[in-house]
């Protein structure tokens, strides 16, 4: 079974921006039930439907399928409003591939750094710009950000 | 946009069974919201994720993607219980391809015949075994049958 293990942090400075390359993303949810989320995402010129199960610790079942971009544009209209818009930056540090998401719209001001790991106890080197860990804080789940936006926290 | 236009009927006799070939299907729902249903279906050796929008008259937006059978088996475990099991029979009549679904489990006894049409007012010849039309009766939506099973009607 494909399992996603992910740790999530705030950022403490803008130092991550140097040399980072970004992709615009727009995503919405067909289901936001924590036991079974269904996400439609457009990432640059690519699009995906992604199904995730309930989190257990840092791990979560994840199934992702590429779909035509034109379908995704229609499917985003079927999603529960509002949509989430963000730029995902890839930042390489000490052999790790960090994903730094900068949110827009009603989540503007929020920047989150994520690292996918092979196991829950895998060691990794923290970049200097890394802030507090929020892996266990459900407010930072993207499925929740669509309902409870950063501007209302 | 892919749109599904479908008329749905009960059956008045078993005459449809002659020469019909059937495929076992098992399906469940990740979302049953009438505005956005997400279905996982195993049909014989094939599997699909299917997303449908709200019905408008007889029509409904429909997006279907083939997925690996092994993924579908995992995904059925993420679905809202209970699952629906049925055999789908293909019955050819006067140039039309009828789908006759015979349900099992807690929907046993229910048999429904469906015809997909190119437009809402398309003419078609009714087979002798066709019963009352139930296109507009939400009790017969498969997403509803998973919640309100035939045995409890």
From TrEMBL, chains A, B:
Residues 2-147 form the CYTH domain. InterPro entries: CYTH-like_dom_sf, CYTH_domain, NeuTTM/CthTTM-like. The active site is at 29 (proton acceptor). It comes from the Bacteria. Signal peptide: none annotated. PANTHER family: SLR0698 PROTEIN (PTHR40114:SF1). This is CYTH domain-containing protein.
């Amino acid at each position: 079974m494909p399992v996603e293990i992910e740790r999530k942090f705030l950022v403490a400075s803008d130092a991550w921006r140097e040399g980072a390359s970004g992709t615009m993303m727009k995503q919405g949810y067909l289901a936001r039930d924590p036991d079974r989320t269904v996400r439609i995402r457009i990432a640059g010129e690519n699009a995906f439907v992604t199904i995730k199960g309930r989190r257990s610790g840092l791990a979560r079942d994840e199934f992702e399928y590429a779909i035509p971009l034109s379908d995704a544009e229609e499917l985003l209209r079927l999603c529960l409003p509002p949509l989430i818009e963000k730029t995902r930056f890839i930042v390489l540090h000490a052999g790790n591939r960090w994903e730094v998401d900068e949110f827009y719209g009603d989540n503007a001001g929020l920047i989150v750094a994520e690292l996918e790991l092979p196991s829950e106890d895998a060691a990794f080197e923290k970049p200097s710009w890394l802030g507090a860990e929020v892996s266990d804080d459900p407010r930072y789940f993207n499925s929740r950000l669509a309902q409870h936006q950063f501007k209302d926290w």
